What does this fold into?
Amino acid sequence: MHAAAGFELIIAMFLVIVALHHVARRLSLPPAAALIVGGGAVAFIPGLPAVAIDPELVLVLFLPPLLMDGAWFTAIAPFRRHMAGILSLAVGAVFFTTAVVAVVAKLLLPALPWAACVALGAILSPPDAVSARAVLQRVRLPRRLSTLLEGESLLNDAAGLVLFRFAVAAVVTGAFSLGAATGTFFLLVAGGIAVGAAIGGLWVLLLRRLNDDTLMIAATLLVCWSAYIAGELLHVSGVIAVVTAGLTCGWFQHVVFSASVRIRALAFWQVLVFLLEAAVFTLIGLSLRGLLDRVGDPARIVDTMAVPVLVIVAAVVVARFVWIFAADAVVAILHRTGVTAARPLGGRAALVMSWAGMRGVVTLAVALSLPETMPERDLMLVTAFAVILVTVLIQGTSLGWVIRRACPAEDPSALPPLDLHAAEHAMFRAQLAAVERDAYDDRGTLIHPQLLRRYTVRATAGEAFDGTPEERTDAIARHFDVIIAAVAAGRAELVRLHRAGQIDDETLHDLEHDLDLEELGAVAAKG
It folds into this structure.
């Protein structure tokens, strides 16, 4: 295929994506499911070339920005508070599911080496960050559950990828050391944290010196790929590096971004993430044709692979239920005996968590990266694709219904001390204090009565100024200088409340967005 034809095919794919998203919204269907089904249907259109996915390119192209987006908006305080639960899911559940799948695969296929069984488990065990985001955006969960699922989706890919690489190496070399693997795992994680923190810190220093909105947005966009590539080049976890950099940038963006940069960057980033997420699910559907071409006659799948594939898919789903309910039972016992203050999720919340285990692009990309010499490679590819289809099309589609039926209760301890109304009043008080300082001239004469009575619209404020055009321009400029100072005071108060743990990230983002719009209007009016 010529490069121009490939580009035309990409543009056509994005047009199909827009159409499928529109249809999904009109029919109240999950877009992820519509994109996978639509991509699968498009793949079999006569005359279209088969889509061959380069697994390494998929990981480096799609994974970093989508992880960065999740980490950027992650609430750090709840993330830190629920770290034990997040690690239980991101590491414990991944290892447990890998072990369950490995045992089931060995029972079904006794000739398959243990290392290959572990590799299959590592492919299927980590729920996908992209799939989780796509589904969670359409449902409303209690804060604790959202934090646990978002945190799991950010960290579990690292555990799954490390397990996979160890297992494949064991298949190729025939040697494996548990002690060496454990030490290497912690080294990869620690190295990824160090690399991500360093790149996030460099980003903060750089943005404090850049005075151009476009350059700041471009530098922010490049952080995710820089962290991932740097981590991989230094042989540490690129996934952890991206997550750490994203958490760092998300924490400091409130103080290094101007209002115009934040508004423009958010709009740009939302479109980019939408296209990348949609492309991921469409590529999963398009890859179906290539999978069938490789395996051969579909009857072969039904005759020789159907039973082991279905049993392994069931094992993946059941293993998550077992781990979450067992872990919650342990937490309940420890809580009742006074060993820990952490409260158990409860049966309803545990049911929702267990059902929210969608797999996606990471599972597909890792499966496609299996070496040609891997025993039962075709079976592993078919199983990976089946797990993606079942979890996204069935679990992802029905998750909203499960949440509505289960009605998991909000944990009162997860709520911040101040709600949106109280935080808004604190912000208004800080703004009023800033206006009062600048509302009078040196002689004590009130020069900004409109601001003291609350802000007025630009036209009304402009009509209140008299004098020559030069005097009126100067007075308007001073008027809006006070507004800008009030906005700065309000933003500083919001950041102070957030850093003190008085408000959550959602409240911070909502009120900060209002202040950004107010500041942009004042700057534009000032000229």
